[in-house]
Structure formats: C-alpha cells, structure tokens
C-alpha cells in the first residue's frame, strides 16, 4: 500500500476470490474494498464462507475519477489513482478490469 498526498496505489493478494466476488467503491473520500466468497459442498452438508473489507482514506491530491482497479490472472488486485487535475468526488463504484499486470 502506497498512499501519499499525490499517490494512491493499493495492491492486494486476493487469489481465493473471483473478480465478481470483489467490489471497490468510493464514497466521502473513502476507498472501500470488499470481497465475499461462499461455497457449499455438493452434498449440501458443509458450507464455506470467506469475507474481507478494507478501507483507506483517499488523499486530497488524488483525482477520484482517475482511480482504476485491475485483477491479474495471478489473483492480485491493483488499485491506482493519479494526482488531481479535476474530479467530481461523487460516490461511484469502480469496475474491476481483468489484466495480466499487477
């Protein structure tokens, strides 16, 4: 995690989750990353659940509209933001792109 006045870079190993199990949201200068994975056995006798949430304050110098996220084939989620030029600061959900770089 690298967070500074003009830098935002969060790298998480989430190989046990699929991209559709993870949400990345921005609201009120907060970046929230959460994931939830549930699995039932074929017989229905056992149940496995895994869940996480992490929250970071977005520095004032980061353009919230520039924040992107990428999910690599290796299961690494990378979230990056660029220094501020302009941005609305409105709440939004950030789509997770599938990529090979992390």
UniProtKB/TrEMBL annotation:
<feature type="domain" description="SHSP">
    <location>
        <begin position="1"/>
        <end position="99"/>
    </location>
</feature>
<dbReference type="GO" id="GO:0005634">
    <property type="term" value="C:nucleus"/>
</dbReference>
<feature type="region of interest" description="Disordered">
    <location>
        <begin position="79"/>
        <end position="102"/>
    </location>
</feature>
<dbReference type="GO" id="GO:0051082">
    <property type="term" value="F:unfolded protein binding"/>
</dbReference>
<dbReference type="GO" id="GO:0009408">
    <property type="term" value="P:response to heat"/>
</dbReference>
<feature type="compositionally biased region" description="Basic and acidic residues">
    <location>
        <begin position="90"/>
        <end position="102"/>
    </location>
</feature>
<dbReference type="InterPro" id="IPR002068">
    <property type="entry name" value="A-crystallin/Hsp20_dom"/>
</dbReference>
<dbReference type="GO" id="GO:0042026">
    <property type="term" value="P:protein refolding"/>
</dbReference>
<dbReference type="InterPro" id="IPR008978">
    <property type="entry name" value="HSP20-like_chaperone"/>
</dbReference>
<comment type="similarity">
    <text>Belongs to the small heat shock protein (HSP20) family.</text>
</comment>
<dbReference type="InterPro" id="IPR001436">
    <property type="entry name" value="Alpha-crystallin/sHSP_animal"/>
</dbReference>
<protein>
    <recommendedName>
        <fullName>SHSP domain-containing protein</fullName>
    </recommendedName>
</protein>
<dbReference type="GO" id="GO:0005737">
    <property type="term" value="C:cytoplasm"/>
</dbReference>
<dbReference type="Pfam" id="PF00011">
    <property type="entry name" value="HSP20"/>
</dbReference>
């Amino acid at each position: 995690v690298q967070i500074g006045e003009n830098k935002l870079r969060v790298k998480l190993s989430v190989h046990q989750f699929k991209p559709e199990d993870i949400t990345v949201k921005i609201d009120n200068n907060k970046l929230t990353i959460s994931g939830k994975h549930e699995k039932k056995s074929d017989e229905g006798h056992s149940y496995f659940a895994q869940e996480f949430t992490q929250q970071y304050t977005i520095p004032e110098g980061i353009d919230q509209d520039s924040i992107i996220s990428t999910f690599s084939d290796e299961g690494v989620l990378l979230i990056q933001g660029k220094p501020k030029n302009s941005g609305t600061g409105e709440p939004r959900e950030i789509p997770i792109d599938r990529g090979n770089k992390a």
